[in-house]
Amino acid sequence: MRTATGTDEPALEVFPPGTGRAADGVLVVGGCRVDELAAAYGTPALLVDEAHVRATVRRCRAALAAAWPDAQVTYASKAFPATAMYRLMAQEGIWVDVAGLGELEVALGAGVDPATILVHGNAKGDDLIGRALEAGVAYVVIDNLDDVDRLEGRATREQRVLVRLNPDVAPQTHDAMSTGGQRSKFGLPAGLAREVIARVRAANLLTLAGVHVHIGSQIHDLAPFAESVRALRALVEELGIADVAVYDLGGGLGVPHLRGEHVPSLEEYVGTLAAAAREHLPPAARILIEPGRALVATAGVSLYRVVTVKRAAATFVAVDGGMGDNLEVSLYGQPFEAVIAAPRTAGPRAPERCDVVGQHCESGDRLVAGVELPAPAVGDLLAVPVTGAYTHPLSNNYNGALRPPVVFVGGGEHRAVIRRETLADLVRRDVA
Ligand code: LLP
Question: Which of 238, 265, 297 is the last residue of a domain?
Answer without folding.
Answer: 297
